[in-house]
Every structure is written in structure tokens, then in C-alpha cells.
Hints:
The complex is a heterodimer of chains A (204) and B (392). Chain A is α/β, with parallel strands linked by helices and 204 residues long.
Amino acid sequence: MSSESTVYIVDDDEAVRDALGFLMKSVGLPHKLYEDGQKFLDVYQSAPSAGCLILDIRMPNMNGLELQERLNTRGMVLPIIFITGHGDVPMAVQAMQLGAFDFLQKPFRDQDLLDRVQMAIEQDKQCRDDQLEKTEIIKRLETLTDREREIFNCVVEGKANKVIAIDLGLSQRTIEIHRSHVMEKLQAGSLANLVRMCEKAKSN
Amino acid sequence: MNNKKISLGASAIALYCIFLMSLFLVFDLAVPLGISAGVPYIAVVLIALWSTSLRLAIYLAGICSVFIVLGYIYSPVGVGSWQVLTNRTLALFAIWVTAILVMRWKTAEQFNDRFQRQAERERDQYISKLRQAEEEAKQNRERLAHVDRVSAMGEMAAGIAHEINQPLTAIATYTEACQRMQKNGMLDEADLNSILGKIGAQAHRAGEIIRHLRSFVKKQESQRNSTDCNQLVRDVVSLTTPEAKLHNIAIQLDLAPDLPAVNVDVVQIQQVILNLVNNGIDSMVEAATADPQHEANVIEIKTRLLTRDAIEIAIKDQGMGMSDDVAHHIFDPFFTTKVKGMGMGLSISRSILKSHGGSIQVRPVAPRGSLFYISLPTAVEKRVFQEDVYEQ
Lengths: 204, 392
């Protein structure tokens, strides 16, 4: 349980909200409670941080699905666990299709919720780490010269130096020098890593 | 006197008459009044006919006749005189004609009396049958209102189940959190006390919902109590909020403070308001389906003092609205523009308000939607609002 991850709880019912707060407290999870989507957005938009969101689907003014949409359009990837009441299955299906992490029907067992919160926090951390890594890789890629770039593209395709030399009309020695520069700049360490970095940079 | 038996008064009068007649006889025999002996006898017969029973009167007339004949036979003037004979015969004739005429008149009067009493009896029977029919009609209206309430509850079942689920979820979560805290040694007495209190409160909350539902759905005799309109509105809103939430509709209240009380059957008026709010919700759901872009999700309920003697409750929705033609028929029984339902809700509402001495009307609002406004008399003066048809 990282100290950075916060569980955000949005539910218009005061008792349910309060009880969920207690539950988080009982397992030592930092949490914040909001009574409606707008209040949550106002705070979260200015300081998007790690964690997950427990969201009631049925709320007046802005319901859970609308909030999910707003987060999606702003590109905020906080994992959402929906809690739904009676007869909300169609809405729950829609929520899953729009990328929700999971949903639980009320009343739920505390262990079920906590398990999902744990997994969601893990996924969120993973996501953020991946994102950071990607940004770093792209930054490093940008330090490559055009020639180095060319050679990088050929290397990750699995071509041998000799073949690259022939393709680009350069000497093998030149290729080797450029290749080692690429490795250095990207801090790859191995060909496998280099390929992995390439994939990562292209993802999402 | 219509008695079959001869009453004491009648006998007394008869005896008095006989006494008078005897007097006249003595007078007749003593004094030579041959000509006009009949007149006093006729007077006596008239008295008898008027104040005693007809049978006695006939007997008296008979005795008079005998006395007249006696007076003639024992007359000091003499039997041979033809004036005396004519006079006595005329007297007899006069007595009997008078007797017969008065008898017929009295018989007709008695018949008339009997006839009138019969008519009164029949009228009373008619009135009591009418009252019975009124009572039956009232019971049927109450039965219908009850059915309407039950079906309204049925339609709102999803919202109700959701509403009860909330406190249950809170209770389950509080309890489990408490157990964890205890296991981790994080629980102190103050916290425990606080959580237990909250659990209890949630259990009561669920109980309240059930209780309110039960009282709304119960079949019961109409009873009127002095009530605050605003509290009545708030109670209805608590019943209908889950359904509204289901459709993203908010209910806004604008309740005038310090309204005078109204003397109403609380359940029935709640039924009316609930019906109007549900109609508003249905209309707005329909509008949203037809035009998803349109941002309209508020139902407003407003109370205010209309005049010194009446309070107005207005329910405004932002739904489909209605044409003039529909508005004209909207309160008719079995009239509906919806696929589901019987179309009885508004007609039942109108009859409930009528029996309270109030009214219900509708008008369109801009840009779209409907405004239903009901008026209820205040409990300031005591007024009786029974539907006595024959008194109108």
C-alpha cells in the first residue's frame, strides 16, 4: 500500500459514503469522500493523483456513467469500481464497455470490495509507471540523430549489421558505431530491451 | 280522531251531547215549539260529528231522530197539525243530510291523512336508499383509490428496492469495517459507540421507509386530520425520490413558510401529489427519449397561500406537455396518453380533491412541460363537504 495512492469515493448517499470511509480506514487506505461527481471533478482535475475511484452509478445531477465519460474525454485513467443498486445491470454493462475496472452490486461483502480496490490500485500504479517509462523512452528517442534513428529502426526489425550496411550503403563499421550510440542514448543494455522499448514507445 | 277504539274524550263529548239533546226534548215537550224543533238537534249532531267518533255521532243522530218523533207524538200542540208534521219531517231530513255530508267530508280528510303519511313513509324509504347508494359509491371510490395506490407502489418497486438497499449496504459495511478495526486493534470505545449508533440509525431508516410504504398502501377508512401541507409534500418527496433518481431527475421544493393547516386525509392527498409527480417523471423520461439533447431534469413543487381560505400546491414538470384537446380530457376516467396504466390516476385525484372541497387544474408551461395546481381549503373555518346530491 503506497502512501501516494488514494481511494476516491463518490456516492450521494451519506450513510453509504461514511461507511465506505470507515472501511478504508479499517485497512489503513488513504481516502477522500465526495457527495457528487462535480465536486470530485473540481478537486481531481487540478491534481490528478494515483489511486482508484469507487463510484455509485445512480446519482442525481451527474450519474456515474456521465462522470466516467468526463474522465475519459479528459484522458484521465483512474480505475473505476462501480457500485450499483437493484436493477442496474444494463448500466453496469455499459460502464464495463466504457472501460470500468469492475462493478459490485449492493450490498457487497467488504472483502470483495477491498480485493478489487487493491487490484485497482495495483493496476493504476502499473499504468502510471508504464506511462512514466514511456515518456522517458520517447525523451531518449528524441535525442537520436536522423541517422541513428534510421539505424535504430533497422536494428529493432532484427536485421544484422551487415544487412543494414548494405541497405543503407554504409560501411559495417559505421553501422556498429551508430548502433552503440543508440544503445547508449537509450540505455537499452541489450537488443531485447531495445525492442521492448520500441514497443513501449509505440503503445497507447 | 282516527282511533278504532272509542277514546275517553269522545265518550265524554257523546254523553254531553246526549245531555243536551235530553234538555231539548224536555223543552220540546213542555213548550209548543212545533215548527223549529229540529234546529237545536242539528246543532248537537254537528257538534257530535265534529268532535267525536263517526260511529257515536251516527248513534246520536239516531237518538235525535227518536227524540224528534217523540216530541211530535207527545206534543202539546196535537198530532193532527200538518205544519208540525212537515216541520218534524224536515228536521229529520236536515239532520240526516247534515250527518251524511259531514261524514263524507271527514272520511275524505282521514283518507287524505292516511295518504300523506304513506307518502312520507315512501319518501323516507327513498332517502334512506339514496343514502345507502351514496355510501356504497363512497366505498367504491375508496377501494379504487386504494387499488390505485397499490399499483403506484408496484410501479415504483425498483426505486423502492433501491432505496432500502442503501441503508442495508451502509449497515453491512459499517459492521465489517468495525470487525476489521477490532481485529487490528484500531477500535476504541468512542469509535465503537459511534459506529454502533450509525448502524442503528440506518436500520431505523430502512424501517421508516417500510413503515411509510405500509401506511400508504394500507386499505383504510378515510379519516381527516389537521395537517401541515409542507410536511405532507416532504413525505411524498421522500417516497418518490428513488424513482426520480433512477431517471436523473431532481425534485426542487419551494415551500412557503407558516402556511395554515389543512384538514385532510393525509394518505389521499399524498396519493394525489405522488400521482402528479410520477406523471411528471414519466413525461420527462418520454421527453428525454425523444430528444436526448434537451437538458431538462427538474420537477418543481411549490406551496403557497392562495387566498385567506385556500392553499395551492403546484407541481411543474419539464416533460412533453399536452395539447389543449388532451388537457380538456386529462381528468376523464380511463383517459391516458401512456402505453401503460389504466388512465385512472388523474380522475381519482380529481374526485379526492372534490371530496375535500378543493380542485385540480392544469396548464402548459414554456418552453415545455405542464403545471398541475391543486387547491385545498384551510382548516380555518369548519366546513362540511358531503356530497348530498338531493340537497343541491
